[in-house]
Design brief:
There is one protein chain. With about 80 residues, the chain is mostly helical. It has one domain. The two termini are about 25 Å apart. The chain has 4 helices and no strands.
Amino acid sequence: MTNIYKDPMTSQKAAMVKLHKWIVKDSVTTNLTASPLYADVRRLLQQGQAWQKLSILPQHLELIRELPTNWQVVIMQHSPCR
C-alpha cells in the first residue's frame, strides 16, 4: 500500500499514510498513539478498502476453531515496546 501512496502532495490518503507512519514510528517516545490525532487518522484510513485489508480483527481468530485439532498454529504480533 505504501508504494501507491508515496507522495503526500498527491492525495489525502497519501498524507494520512505518511502521518500514520510518523506517529507509529515515534510512538514509544511521544505516546502519540494515545492521542485524538491518531484516532482520527486511523478512522480516516479505515474508510479505505486497502487499509481494511491490512487490519486483522479479533473475530478472525475464530477461524482457528475450524482448523483440524492436530494442527499447531503460531500467531505472532509485533507491537512497539512501551
